[in-house]
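Tokens in:
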């Protein structure tokens, strides 16, 4: 019976010591730092400091861009190329006087 009382008194002593330590820690904090917040202020602070919210917003933006990329590859593509040149003078084709004539057997001309 004495052993149970001894353990009980020891636990109570530790509990009181913990409460006194917490009370002394609170006295070290100035009153200007301690501020009572209402629910709306707590929600606003949580949303402001929540990093997961920022990461989620970026993930949504990435998903939107991937969706747009997938849709753009679904539709047919139309490509138009144009090449032009303009000459100031008519081109002159100069051929040498000795031209070679080749004959292909089996063709009649």
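Residues out:
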């Amino acid at each position: 019976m004495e052993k149970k009382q001894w353990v009980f008194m020891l636990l109570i002593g530790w509990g009181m010591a913990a409460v006194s330590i917490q009370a002394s820690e609170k006295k070290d904090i100035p009153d200007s730092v301690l501020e009572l917040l209402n629910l709306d202020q707590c929600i606003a602070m949580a949303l402001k400091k929540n990093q997961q919210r920022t990461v989620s917003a970026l993930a949504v933006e990435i998903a939107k861009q991937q969706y747009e990329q997938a849709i753009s590859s679904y539709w047919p593509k139309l490509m138009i190329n144009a090449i032009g040149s303009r000459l100031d003078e008519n081109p002159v084709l100069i051929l040498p006087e000795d031209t070679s004539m080749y004959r292909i057997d089996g063709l009649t001309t």
